[in-house]
């Protein structure tokens, strides 16, 4: 995968393209490369952002959907995103549901 992983204030993410924003959330065993074809397809017309969920970096006792949802809220705030399409897979779906609740 030939995308640059950006880092800002403890967050790691991919940010490709420009236009209307699509945020992609990967699954538990997923990797950013799972979204490679999606990014390549949409980056010509959309800004595609993929935050790396810190599933393996968080303390084991506090790692869960609720804490990952809080992580996502902080990331969305940092990126100053207010209007975007959320596309999810597996664990990312659970995180997205709590995020939107």
List the SSEs and their pairings:
Blueprint: E1 5-8, E2 11-17, E3 20-25, H1 36-42, E4 46-51, H2 65-78, E5 85-88, H3 91-100
Parallel strand pairs: 3-4, 3-5
Antiparallel strand pairs: 1-2, 2-4
Helix pairs in contact: 2-3
CATH homologous superfamily heading = Alpha/Beta hydrolase fold, catalytic domain
Low-confidence stretches: none
Put simply, the count of helices is 3
Q: Report the major sheet.
A: 5 strands, mixed
- The total number of structural domains is 1
Our Rg estimate from Cα atoms comes to 13 Å
Strand content: 25-35%
Terminus-to-terminus distance: 33 Å
Strand order of the largest sheet: 1-2-4-3-5
What CATH calls the topology is Rossmann fold
Describe the overall structure.
- The structure is a single chain.
- With 101 residues, this protein is of the alpha/beta class.
- 31% of the residues lie in helices and 27% in strands.
- It contains 3 helices and 5 strands.
- It has helices spanning 36-42, 65-78, 91-100; strands spanning 5-8, 11-17, 20-25, 46-51, 85-88.
- A hairpin with a 2-residue loop joins strand 1 and strand 2 (11-17).
- The longest helix is centred in the C-terminal third of the chain and has 14 residues, at 65-78.
- It is globular, with a radius of gyration of 13 Å.
- It starts with a strand and ends with a helix.
């Amino acid at each position: 995968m030939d995308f640059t992983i950006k880092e800002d204030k403890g967050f790691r993410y991919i940010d490709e393209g420009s236009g209307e924003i699509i945020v992609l959330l990967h699954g538990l065993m997923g990797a950013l490369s799972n979204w490679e074809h999606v990014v390549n397809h949409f980056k010509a017309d959309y800004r595609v952002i993929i935050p790396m969920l810190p599933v393996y970096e968080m303390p084991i006792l506090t790692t869960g959907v609720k804490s990952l949802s809080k992580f996502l809220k902080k990331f969305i705030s940092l990126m100053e995103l207010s209007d975007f399409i959320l596309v999810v897979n597996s664990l990312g779906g659970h995180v997205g549901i709590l995020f939107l609740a």
